[in-house]
Amino acid sequence: MPIRFVTSNEGKADEAREYLDDVERVDYDYTEIQGDLETVAAAGARDAFEALGGVDPVLVDDAGLFVRALDGFPGPYSSYVEDTLGVDRVWRLCEAEDDRRAHFRTVLAYAHRPEEDGDVQVETFEGSVPGTIVAPRGDGGFGYDPIFEHDGTTMAEMSTAEKNAVSHRGRALATFADWLAGEPAQRKGAQ
Asked: Which one of the listed residues 47, 61, 62, 145 is annotated catalytic?
């Protein structure tokens, strides 16, 4: 049975295929509620699962950039902040700060119905990668990649393979793949 990854981003689906056998990308615009990453991802997965027929499992992710000096901003509002303020302005907010440590964090939400006549269950899995906010460098990636440095290199300076090897989404996908294989390591639990 395929896992339908609800995203408009083919790159995210390709990354998921590195960890999972049967991934189908589905472009569905679920209602995104406001809240922390877990709440947003779980609600989106439940919405998408029901809207897409309530049979095949659905995977949704929500991710954010959390900057320590900005008390975790932009966090769950990262996409909105990128669209409205832009990456360069986020860099300018951080530029004068002594502590520019940050992390990217992803929460995957997997909606499924374990029993044919049972209730929908949503499992969540998370991944995180530490880094530092720096002046923009590099031409690759997307979003905050040019200002997020991990181990001396911005995500925008990494090849797709290098980035996927350390990415927050990749770490969450690895945990999810283990759970699917029956190894519930680091499982956060049903919601």
From this structure: 62
